[in-house]
Amino acid sequence: MMNLYAINHKFHYELENLTRAFFPNEKIAVVSCEVAPCELQAPYILTEYKEDMRVSVSFDGFERSLSEEKGEDDELSMATLLYRLLCEYTGVTLSWGLLTGVRPIKLFRKLRGDLGEEGAREYFARKLLVSDQKTDLACITCKNEQKILDLSSDKSFSLYISIPFCPTRCSYCSFVSQSVEKARHLIPDYVRLICQEISITGDIARNLGLKLETVYMGGGTPTTLSADDLSVILKAVTDNFDMSMCREFTVEAGRPDTITEDKLRALYDGGCDRLSVNPQTLSDEVLRNIGRRHTVQEFFDSFSLARKIGFGHINTDLIAGLPGDTPESFMRTIDGICGLSPESVTIHTLSMKRSSRLTGDNMQILREDTDSVSRMLTYGYNKLNECGLAPYYLYRQSKMLGNMENTGWSKKGFEGLYNVYIMDETHTILACGAGAVTKMRDTSSDRIERIFNFKYPYEYNARFEELMKRKDAIEEFYANL
Fold first, then answer.
1. Is residue 417 within 8 Å of 213, Cβ to Cβ?
2. DSSP designation for 402
3. Are residues 124 and 21 in the same domain?
4. Which of 90, 246, 258, 474 has most Cβ atoms within 10 angstroms of its Cβ?
5. CA dist., res. 142 & res. 136, Å (int)
């Protein structure tokens, strides 16, 4: 347990997030008070805001303090002091510097609007201590995102469909999903009810005169369902929504061990024009480490089958930093993926498990992981760029190895539009299914309201009528704009 003391100030939220970037698995207790405790036990971080600002740290024999006079942005200044001390203690320099938020591109876009592109770059580099490499990445991604954001209008929306079933649960997974072995009996009712919810949602969108931009079916693994079930759900979408202006219909096939020819034909015939087939790695050993049942060859077979069926946009997801992976094996994965010439590739960085704890011994592992995942991402980005792909969206999660990022890359004209819209919170997302969250956006004020569906399929099935009453809030939201 590490104590973070906030003495006489309210800057603790950002300071806690910054501390967690260095210690992703440590439990951090935030203590707000007006006077520092008389007795302090290491490890601790003490941040004081009095005549001036002072940050002190104590870790197993390492004790250091830094102070600075109060100025224009004291929260940023105090974070900078803390960052300098944590870099010195851990030996780790974070590529994203002081940035801990999920949406760095959204921040860069705002800064670009206020300060111009060079001003935004300078703020990232000088004020937020972001590396040149990540500043360049943010700048390029922001430009490519803007073209997609410009397609959206005040009446635009996207549709999300949740299929929260998987063949097995991967060791790194944090999504709400059910192993199909345990939840198979829930599927018939779930399919029937989600089609009802799609119909109800379609009526609402039509009554409000909303314009459907993209559809995304995710989970879970949608292809855990049978071909017939997939056909029924896709037909519910095309029957209940005006698809004439829909720019993209994505289905996450995800796990190659769930992909069959009849399922792919059901998706293709049902209107899916963007398919995601996700190997995560092209190492059979690493696949076994994370609890995946498919092999690398099964991924290649699934990718080839999707091409044969006629899919002209196939995305592949990869994860840097998986257990047992090395920079060299990850490079082989990137080379193998590029050999397939997919239209888009998303490289995720592994998010650390909550159950583990950071100790003195594995602090060295944190350093090694930071260096290792940095090499992986650098090679991947350079190789994808050589193959004609460019970054078009980027987001971050807590407890990521090296405090890195997830980045989507695509060939020109094959950007994943939904990915940009959901991450930027560009427009309303109407969501159906267990664990789905409807996000209604007021484009005039950036205000967002949410409607949460029940998390688990058994709740969704059992309390469906109660859930549908929540849909009334959508029309109420638009009536009050």
1. yes
2. G
3. no
4. 474
5. 10
Q: Give the up-direction half-sphere exposure of residue 278: CA atoms within 13 A in the CB hemisphere.
A: 22
Return d(Cα 87, Cα 19) in angstroms, integer. 10
- State which residues form the domain around 28: 2-90
Residues 234 and 333 in one domain: yes
Q: How far apart are CA 329 and CA 281, in angstroms?
A: 9
Same domain for 52 and 6: yes
**Entry pTM:** 0.92
> Is residue 471, in this structure, part of any structural domain at all?
no
The answer as to whether 469 is a domain residue is no
Residue 96 lies in a domain: no
Predicted confidence at residue 362, as pLDDT, reads: 43
CA dist 168 to 177, 221, 396, Å? 9, 10, 25
Strands of the 344-349 sheet, one edge to the other: 390-395, 406-410, 344-349, 314-320, 274-277, 248-254, 211-219, 156-163, 428-432, 437-442, 447-452
Q: Which residues of the chain have pLDDT under 50?
A: 172, 174-176, 355-365
Tell me the three state secondary structure of residue 29. strand
What is d(CA 292, CA 331) in angstroms, rounded to the nearest whole number?
A: 20
What pLDDT is recorded for position 359?
A: 31
- pLDDT in the model for residue 357: 29
Token duo for residue 253? 């096939």
Residues 119 and 264 in one domain: no
Domains: count for the chain:
3
Residues 311 and 295 in one domain: yes
Asked if 79 and 357 count as a contact pair (C-beta separation under 8 A), the reply is: no
